[in-house]
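FORM 12-B: Structure-to-Sequence Request
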């Protein structure tokens, strides 16, 4: 009886998780679906075809992916040294440093966005992809630093010391010891940075100034328009990159675990 209940609860949870996706598919590839009909009256790919031929949608998808990839890479580069210090060292004022790092996550995003908008207008960065990337680093860095610092808190520096004693160069130690041991945390931190940047709406809208249009902005505009088919298709396009990135991350973590097991 207990296995049956466990299986039923698991299936119910899976259904709840995929229900929105199924609804997006039903709305995006159908027409004339009115209450109380349980299923659409007609299935069609016309809305999907229009989305693929819409230059604004393709541009929003391209720019959103470009920004998210750049932000994820920069987040790792900037967070790695800070996370190493925060995770391995104890110093005076460390709690204050943590507070300052996580302050952007508790301050209202509108306040941060308006302040950045004024600053970037003066610097000439408003309405540019580079300006949007810099703005996205503010919400992504706290999560990448926290993820990597948690891994560094369990990191044993003696492996680096042993490699140095055996004649390895600093670069060899960094590539073959540090990065190899930190690979799972780096992959997860990259995932967080990508997802946060990809889903950013307010900062992109304020800093982009209508010149940088990403898919979340188009999705919000479509939601206010009230066309279920358009909303469904753009929602599917919005969900697709995160799903692929999560699947790639899971594959990387699995492969890394298999490599570690093979060594031992």
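FORM 12-B RESPONSE
SEQUENCE OUT:
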């Amino acid at each position: 009886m207990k296995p049956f209940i466990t299986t039923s609860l698991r299936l119910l949870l899976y259904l709840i998780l995929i229900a929105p996706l199924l609804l997006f598919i039903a709305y995006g590839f159908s027409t004339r679906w009115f209450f109380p009909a349980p299923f659409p009256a007609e299935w069609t790919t016309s809305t999907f075809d229009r989305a693929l031929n819409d230059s604004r949608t393709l541009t929003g998808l391209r720019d959103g992916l470009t920004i998210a990839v750049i932000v994820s890479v920069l987040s790792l580069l900037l967070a790695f040294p800070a996370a190493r210090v925060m995770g391995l060292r104890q110093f005076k004022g460390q709690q204050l440093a943590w507070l300052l790092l996580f302050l952007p996550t508790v301050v209202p995003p509108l306040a941060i966005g308006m302040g950045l908008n004024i600053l970037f207008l003066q610097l000439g960065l408003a309405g540019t992809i580079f300006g949007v990337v810099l703005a996205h680093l503010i919400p992504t860095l706290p999560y990448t630093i926290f993820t990597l610092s948690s891994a560094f808190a369990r990191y044993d520096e003696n492996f680096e010391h042993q490699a140095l004693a055996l004649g390895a160069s600093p670069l060899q130690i960094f590539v073959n010891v540090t990065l190899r041991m930190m690979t799972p945390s780096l992959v997860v931190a990259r995932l967080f940075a990508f997802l946060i940047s990809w889903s950013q709406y307010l900062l992109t809208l304020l800093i982009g100034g209508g010149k940088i249009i990403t898919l979340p902005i188009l999705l919000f505009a479509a939601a206010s328009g009230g066309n279920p088919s358009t909303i469904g298709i753009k929602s599917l396009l919005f969900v697709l990159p995160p799903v692929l990135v999560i699947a790639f991350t899971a594959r990387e973590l699995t492969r890394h675990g298999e490599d570690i097991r093979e060594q031992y």
